[in-house]
């Protein structure tokens, strides 16, 4: 049967709504993209050009790749004040190659007079909001796959490769196909010892690594609104593991409080939410109070199951990364380890996600609890998570880690076995030397 | 690009980047990678595909890694367009940024192997000769097709910058 061109939007329009607002109801993703595209509204499937409010990149994805391309094009940076450059992947340098990459980064920052340059302050996705660069309504791109983290603040943020970043850095624009929205609605409240990390591992286990289909995943419901800002960041951060383009959370008073403390001004939380009648592609409802701590077996986050399915012995516990070593993560680990020592024969490595988080954890006594329990503290950087640093997991090591990815060989030897879990579960496992339900030791 | 009629090579769902740009050839240049494009599912493809031919896929076309060689291999072999129900996001962005036309068409699988099709990405129309069928696809706006026709993002930027300098 012949088909005629169909409208690209599948959004049903309610007459009453249209009369009230002149526009069909829109999702948060649509509103953010429409603003960046300078349009009143956009529909899923529509391709638009967006003005970029902020471009973030790091030592690995940034100057070392962009500088030669810019030179070849004879082009300059479109707006140096909209660029945020952060060193984290090769920090601290440990050989000539990493030293050179950091030097290129610093030289480029200087030559281009990049004011927002954070050298050795911590992991990009954590430093960016802590320095007050994010706020609701922004349209941002990042030279890193976990850039959806920014969506926790009601900003549209996603990761791009070096070529696309070159386009952004030269023109300040990027094209985008307006994504459909998948809504993950979490009712209830998380139980004690259960975290945002467990929510995401659960979703990875349920939907797989392509479950997000490069769409916008929006997290909502009472369990989400009750999360701290840093816990929300873990949700949007690991949206990358679902294969979505971005993750979003409607901003509220929690967002505002965090951002104002970070120095952001004019934080508008009212405009950035999904309209009640907006069409979403999928709507899933979960009960947070029924969620058990999750553990993902090697070598994929999609291998997540309840912690009760595991009893494996571990020799290394790693608390690190943008996903799992923010202040709230360090606090969680300390709750498990307070006044205790980790099991003989296990090592506990802690790489706080940022200088600021480490300083706060020190002030609260959280760092002392961890060190007294036997933790070895590593620099505020990607560290073992990126697999770029001196510290790597050795042959056949059995690791439980609070990071986001356990792909084979990512964090060390291909024979190392990495299990992913929340900081609570990682700490509890360090305590016993086996994968352990944190609720049994809290 | 949109005017010509091309012959269809039809595939199903989840055609991955390893099938398009097999891992064991990734260390070679695009010539060699393209020679093995789709080899595991259609051994005759690379040798017999003609310039202007069209690939039809199902859901989640180009799933897998972010390797740019996957769309590059198709373009290198002269493929004029890919028509699929949906794409992996990375493949979709890479393809257009490298100058390969990819269109989203809910009814892609109604097109048959060997059909003669003409894709008009700007209008969002696919004409299928023989079957006398016209299918709708998501339109690609003119500004983006301009980039695709320039050969992708980098050549397009070069052109823009030259224009400014002139
Ligand atoms: S900590 Fe890990 S996941 Fe986060 S940005 Fe660094 S390498 Fe990526």
How do you describe this structure in short?
With 442 residues, chain A is α/β, with parallel strands linked by helices. Helix content of chain A is 31%, strand content 17%. Iron/sulfur cluster binds next to α5 and α11 of chain A.
Q: Name the CATH class of chain B.
A: Alpha Beta
What is the topology, as strand order, of the major beta sheet of chain A?
4-3-2-5-6
Say what the CATH topology of the largest domain in chain A is.
Aconitase, domain 3
**What is the arithmetic mean of pLDDT of chain B?**
93
Q: Determine the CATH superfamily of the largest domain in chain A.
A: Aconitase, domain 3
CATH architecture of the largest domain in chain A: 2-Layer Sandwich
Number of helices of chain B: 7
Please give the count of helices of chain A: 15
CATH architecture type of chain B: Alpha-Beta Barrel
How is the topology of this model organized?
The complex is a heterodimer of chains A (442) and B (166).
Chain A: H1 15-21, H2 28-37, E1 47-51, E2 54-58, H3 63-73, E3 83-87, H4 96-111, E4 117-119, H5 124-130, E5 139-142, E6 156-159, H6 162-171, E7 173-177, E8 181-187, H7 196-207, E9 216-220, H8 222-225, H9 229-237, E10 246-248, H10 253-261, E11 282-287, E12 294-296, E13 304-306, E14 316-319, H11 321-324, H12 327-337, E15 347-350, H13 355-363, H14 366-372, E16 375-377, E17 398-401, E18 417-420, H15 423-432
Parallel strand pairs in A: 2-3, 2-5, 3-4, 5-6, 8-9, 8-11, 9-10, 14-15, 14-17, 15-16, 17-18
Antiparallel strand pairs in A: 1-7, 12-13
Helix pairs in contact in A: 3-6, 7-9, 12-14, 12-15
Chain B: E1 6-10, H1 17-20, H2 30-35, H3 45-48, E2 54-56, H4 69-76, E3 81-84, H5 89-97, E4 101-104, E5 116-120, E6 125-129, E7 133-136, H6 142-149, H7 153-165
Parallel strand pairs in B: 1-2, 2-3, 3-4
Antiparallel strand pairs in B: 1-5, 5-6, 6-7
């Amino acid at each position: 049967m012949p088909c005629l061109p169909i409208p690209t939007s599948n959004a049903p329009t309610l007459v009453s709504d249209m009369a009230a607002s002149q526009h069909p109801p829109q999702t948060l993703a649509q509103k953010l993209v429409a603003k960046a595209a300078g349009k009143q509204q956009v529909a899923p499937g529509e391709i638009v050009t967006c003005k970029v409010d902020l471009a973030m990149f790091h030592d690995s994805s940034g100057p070392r790749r962009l500088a030669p391309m810019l030179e070849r094009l004879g082009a300059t940076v479109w707006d140096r004040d909209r660029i945020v450059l952060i060193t984290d992947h090769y920090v601290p340098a440990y050989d000539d190659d990493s030293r050179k990459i950091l030097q290129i980064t610093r030289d480029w920052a200087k030559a281009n007079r990049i004011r927002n340059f954070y050298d050795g302050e911590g992991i990009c996705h954590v430093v960016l909001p802590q320095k007050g660069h994010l706020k609701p309504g922004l349209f941002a791109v990042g030279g890193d796959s976990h850039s959806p983290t920014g969506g926790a603040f009601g900003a549209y943020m996603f990761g791009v490769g070096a070529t696309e970043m070159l386009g952004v850095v030269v023109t300040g624009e990027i094209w985008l196909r307006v994504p459909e929205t998948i809504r993950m609605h979490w009712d209830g409240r998380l139980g004690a010892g259960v975290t945002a990390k467990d929510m995401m591992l659960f979703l990875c286990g349920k939907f797989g690594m392509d479950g997000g289909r490069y769409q916008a995943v929006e997290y909502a419901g009472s369990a989400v609104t009750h999360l701290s800002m840093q816990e929300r960041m873990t949700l949007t951060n690991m949206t990358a593991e679902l294969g979505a383009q971005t993750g979003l959370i409607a901003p509220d008073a929690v967002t505002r409080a965090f951002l104002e403390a970070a120095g952001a001004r004019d934080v508008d939380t009212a405009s950035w939410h999904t309209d009640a009648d907006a069409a979403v592609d999928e709507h899933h409802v979960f009960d947070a109070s029924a969620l058990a701590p999750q553990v993902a077996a090697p070598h994929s986050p999609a291998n997540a199951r309840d912690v009760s399915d595991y009893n494996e012995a571990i020799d290394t516990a790693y608390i690190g990364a943008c996903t799992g070593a923010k202040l709230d993560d360090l606090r969680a680990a300390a709750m498990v380890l307070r006044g205790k020592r980790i099991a003989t024969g296990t090592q506990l490595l802690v790489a706080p996600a940022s200088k600021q988080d480490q300083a706060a954890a020190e002030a609260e006594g959280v760092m002392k609890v961890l060190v007294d329990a036997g933790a070895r503290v590593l620099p505020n950087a990607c560290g073992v998570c990126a697999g770029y640093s001196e510290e790597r997991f050795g042959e056949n090591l059995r690791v439980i880690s609070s990071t986001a990815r356990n792909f084979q060989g990512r964090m060390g030897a291909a024979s190392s076995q990495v299990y992913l879990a929340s900081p609570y579960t990682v700490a509890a496992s360090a305590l016993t030397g086996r994968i352990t339900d944190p609720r049994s030791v809290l | 690009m949109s005017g010509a009629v091309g012959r269809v090579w039809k595939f199903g769902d989840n055609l991955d980047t390893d099938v398009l740009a097999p891992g064991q050839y990734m260390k070679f240049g695009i010539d060699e990678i393209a020679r093995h494009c789709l080899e595991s599912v259609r051994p005759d493809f690379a040798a017999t595909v003609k310039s202007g031919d069209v690939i039809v896929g199902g859901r989640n076309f180009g799933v897998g890694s972010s390797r740019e060689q996957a769309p590059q291999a198709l373009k290198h072999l002269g493929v004029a367009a890919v028509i699929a129900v949906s794409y992996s996001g990375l493949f979709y962005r890479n393809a257009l940024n490298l100058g390969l036309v990819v269109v989203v068409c809910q009814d892609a699988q109604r097109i048959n192997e060997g059909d003669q099709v003409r894709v008009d990405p700007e209008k969002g129309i696919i004409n299928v000769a023989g079957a006398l069928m016209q299918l709708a696809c998501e339109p690609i706006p003119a500004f983006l097709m301009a980039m695709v026709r320039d050969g992708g993002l980098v050549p397009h930027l070069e052109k823009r910058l030259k224009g400014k300098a002139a």
